[in-house]
UniProtKB/TrEMBL annotation:
SUPFAM superfamilies: Ferritin-like. The gene is paaA. InterPro entries: Aromatic_CoA_ox/epox (IPR052703), Ferritin-like (IPR012347), Ferritin-like_SF (IPR009078), PaaA (IPR011881), PaaA_PaaC (IPR007814). It comes from Rurimicrobium arvi. This is 1,2-phenylacetyl-CoA epoxidase subunit A.
């Protein structure tokens, strides 16, 4: 028997015992790579996700709505920052992850490649998009990588505020004038299916699921989370007096879940591949923001250098 310690076995034993993996612990290369991909993708989604809602800040119907929406969008920037930091603990720089986004190499959630056409979209996005994100993220609070799990705890608290502010917009619209109710229904019609796509491909098509479940990065499969989201959302749809654009949706007594229609996977893959309505506009906006922010990064680096040299002088 070899006296050599089997790192891989020890690692898996820790994961199985629900002991968090920390940045300086040994981990398999593929675990590190999977996490870098997943966390950076998540960070990019938070940042790109600010764009569709930013589109409505100047047209919010009241000062109160504007202040709330602004706070929500700022939270998303904060989520991006926690996640970029968590990602850096895995040995990749923030600049590298951002360059991967800007070059089109890294992905972000496809939902943000859909346009926000009316004020009601601010309701539907908060309610459904942040709602779907919560389903995913609550499970991630127990993910095996410590920094990611801890970032998620705070993010989830803020997400639940986002979901409520969205649902409240939908409540006001759906109980308002006929035109307002129509706006709410139209937003639901456009966001329902893309929200269901946020959970990713079906389990049979999801190549990473099995390994990620073994490493406890993922706790539930895509299909489980999607079903959970549908079951939680339909009573909320009913309360609004609206309907989902799915003629196959019905309660299945035997399963204890809602049955639902087929997702348009062709549309899903098309948007993932970069051909959604807003893919190009979103990347263009991020590239411009990055270029325009160059002077801030330079100034911050120069300031840090100046401070460091002063400290060194004192020490000398
Ligand atoms: Fe967020
Ligand atoms: Fe959010």
């Amino acid at each position: 028997m070899s006296p050599q310690i089997n790192f891989e076995e020890q690692f898996q034993a820790k994961v199985d015992a629900e002991i968090k993996i920390e940045p300086k612990d040994w981990m398999p290369d593929a675990y590190r790579k999977t996490l870098i991909r997943q966390i950076s993708q998540h960070a990019h989604s938070e940042i790109v996700g600010m764009l569709p809602e930013g589109n409505w800040l100047t047209r919010a119907p009241s000062l109160k709505r504007k202040a709330t929406l602004l706070a929500k969008i700022q939270d998303e920037a904060g989520h991006g920052l926690y996640l970029y930091s968590a990602c850096e603990t895995l040995g990749i720089t923030r600049l590298q992850t951002i360059e991967d986004l800007l070059s089109g190499k890294a992905k972000y959630s496809s939902i943000f490649n859909y346009p926000s056409l009316s004020w009601a979209d601010m309701g539907a996005i908060g309610w459904l998009v942040d709602g779907a994100a919560i389903m995913n993220q609550v499970a991630l609070c127990r993910t095996s990588y410590g920094p990611y799990a801890r970032a998620m705890v705070r993010i989830c608290k803020e997400e639940s505020f986002h979901q409520r502010q969205g649902y409240e917009i939908m409540m006001v619209l759906s109980k308002g004038s006929a035109a307002q109710k129509e706006m709410a229904q139209d937003a639901l019609n456009r966001w329902w299916w893309p929200a269901l796509m946020m959970f990713g491909p079906t389990d049979s098509e999801s190549s990473n699921t099995e390994q990620s479940m073994k490493w406890k990065i993922k706790r539930h499969t895509n299909d489980e989370l999607r079903q959970k989201f549908i079951d939680a959302s339909i009573p909320q749809v009913n309360y609004l007096g609206l309907t989902v654009p799915d003629k196959d949706l019905k309660w299945n007594e035997e399963r204890g879940h809602y049955d639902f229609g087929e997702i348009d996977w062709e549309e899903f893959w098309n948007v993932v591949k970069g051909n959604g309505i807003c893919n190009k506009a979103r990347l263009k906006a991020r590239r411009e923001a990055h270029e325009q922010g160059a002077w801030v990064r330079e100034a911050a680096a120069a300031y840090a250098e100046k401070r460091a040299s002063r400290v060194n002088e004192k020490v000398a």
